[in-house]
Specification:
36% of the residues lie in helices and 17% in strands. It is globular, with a radius of gyration of 19 Å. With 330 residues, it is of the alpha/beta class. Belongs to the bacterial solute-binding protein SsuA/TauA family. InterPro entries: Solute-binding_3/MltF_N, SsuA/THI5. It is found in: Periplasm.
């Protein structure tokens, strides 16, 4: 496989599980993420669990721009390996807020975990040809359209989560038998090499690995975040029912600040990109080419409901949980 300058350094900080649920035993580290103000006098300290991917740029930008400070919050951002590491930290009150993809939230709530979304994270651009996630393959592959994935091996970072469920739904809607897709679990940084070696036929990548794989000559088939679910909210910030009950004002402040940070990042995409080196080892030449998520100010509830229906159909959950309890309070 062709080598990309700086790729090894880039993936070092991004080899942690990204949009998937992560490992249930994944740990949390608090020595790699900056604090908002170092415990400035008069500010309430909160801890937020995040993962080192482009999706969380708005919260880093919001801290940097003083948006959280204006709400009276001193934010400590703690890096974790994935949503599955953050969830127990929230339920055990080790952290106050966390970040995770929406499928993991639905699965967790269906299992009785009292989690609630409070603000949106990254959302699809809605453009199937230019999104921050893409199903990619070799340029000489016989996979030219969605239905061609039937009977193929497709790499996903986590089985039974948002990537394989959206891909299978896209194939279903295209008229293909999604049960004949063989999903193979592997970390994002390993996917391009496994594709090059012929061990898989396609990969479900997210940025920056879409850009890396593209630089190696691989081509996108479609974005499984832009299709099949319209205007998909991919990830959210969340907390527990107990935290909201015990700290309603703090929860409201965080929601306002996070929403304002999302808006600022969406309106200032170059500033959102500029903050990426603060918590990743992405090289400038890679950052320049990245397709960023949309950073919207509201969770698209219709898309979450559709993800829940897909999760039920794929057997990820036994029944759809109380969505009113899970979705943000209006």
């Amino acid at each position: 496989m062709k080598k990309i300058v700086g790729a090894l350094a880039l993936v070092a900080a991004l080899s942690l599980t990204a949009c998937g649920g992560g490992s249930p035993s994944a740990g949390v580290t608090d020595d790699a993420a900056p604090s908002a103000s170092g415990g400035a006098a008069g500010l309430e300290q909160i801890e937020v669990g995040v993962i080192p991917i482009v999706d969380v740029a708005p919260i880093y930008l919001g801290v940097k721009e003083g948006i959280f400070e204006k709400e009276g919050l001193d934010v400590k951002l703690t890096l974790a390996q994935g949503g599955a590491a953050i969830v127990p930290a929230i339920t055990s009150k080790q952290m106050d807020f966390g970040f995770s993809n929406v499928t993991s939230m639905i699965v967790a709530r269906s299992k009785g975990l009292p989690l609630k979304m409070v603000a949106p994270g990254g959302s699809s651009t809605g453009n199937t040809k230019e999104d921050f996630a893409a199903v990619m393959t070799k340029p000489d592959s016989d996979i030219k359209e969605i239905k061609d994935l039937v009977g193929k091996k497709v790499a996903v970072n986590t089985l039974n989560n948002i990537s394989d469920s959206t891909i299978s739904e896209a194939v279903k809607k295209a008229g293909g038998d999604y049960t004949k897709i063989q999903f193979v679990e592997m970390p994002f940084p390993d996917m391009a090499a496994q594709l090059d070696a012929g061990n898989v036929d396609a990969i479900a990548a997210v940025e920056p690995f879409v850009t890396i794989a593209g630089a190696d000559g691989n081509v996108p088939v479609f974005s499984n975040y832009a299709e099949p679910v319209k205007d998909l909210t991919v990830a959210v910030y969340f907390t527990s029912d107990d935290y909201i009950k015990e700290n309603p004002e703090t929860a409201a402040k965080f929601t306002r600040a996070m929403t304002a940070s999302q808006k600022f990042a969406d309106e200032n995409p170059e500033k959102a990109k500029a903050v990426l080196p603060d918590y990743t080892t992405l090289k400038p030449e890679v950052i320049e080419k990245l397709t960023m998520p949309r950073f919207l100010t509201e969770v698209n509830e219709a898309s979450i409901q559709e993800v829940a229906a897909i999760s039920l159909d794929r057997g990820l959950i036994d029944k759809v949980p109380d969505m009113a309890a899970l979705l943000p309070t209006k």
